[in-house]
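Mods, move this if it's the wrong board.
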Amino acid sequence: MRSGILTLIENWQNNEINAILNSLEIIKYCEELGLEEAWIGEHHFNNFTLCSSITTLISAALAQTQNIKIGSAAILLPHYHPIKIAEEIATLDLISKGRFLFGFARGAFPIFDIAMGNNPESNRKIMLENAQIVYNPLFKEQVNFSGDFFEINNVSIRPHPRGLIPFYIASDNDQTLQKAATLGYNFLGSLTLDKNRAQQIHQIFQENSPKKYEFTLTRAFYVDENRNIAKEKAHMGVDIFTQCMLRANESNPTFESIIKTSDYEEFRAEFFSKDKILETMIVGTPDDCIEQILEIKKQYTPDSLVLKLLLPNLKDSKNTLRIYKEKIIPNL
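Not the wrong board. Structure tokens:
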């Protein structure tokens, strides 16, 4: 099982420059420790998560590292033209020498659909059609495509990637997952994915995928030599994280103007549930975390475990990752 991290470029200290640079520094430190993956999210109109320009951030992370793979978790595909995305990820693949992982999603939050002029009801279909188009110009010389949302005529992009770029879908919709499995995509699981749902998703991929698929699982993580301190700080970190996500509208006029005309607040409260994150997170002493991760390996059989650190400063984040590398990984 591979190990990695997920960052949403959190602005814990209300300093945008430091938030971005510290997140990139953590990715570099992951490489120094020998972790295999780092995933960067995409959020918009949020004062706490500064990851709206996801391909720019991934490009910076790839440029500052040599070995670690960097993934998108996930590009909100309905809001991009497939040819432009194909060009960008082909370039990312070349400059990284094959280290880019292409994760994509429909986009769960109506606020971005409304702000960008999209119809949320169509986004699932747009995402799947978009992903199929992205695949074609990456690996075919000339592409023609006529679909419900895109018309592509005699397109040949430059550059081409050096090899196959793995596709990962982040979704919880059965029809979407079945289609994704049929197309040979991999799966990117969320912070709150529970055992029963994970087993259902495994079954969908096992029954429909033409090849061995990759199952990536994300988990909130906090470790300390003292169990009580670990749990206390984990609760504090999750509480700050969820509250910052839920209160993002308080200082952003985009939220204020849109929330009044949508059910966005209710949906967001469900998605960023403190209780759900705490229920599934890995927390405790190194021995506690080893026991929990071994149980995750047994129940979820992930190919990659991606840790979401909920720490407000760089020093503590590095220390947590060091403990994970030195005291936990060798016992897994």
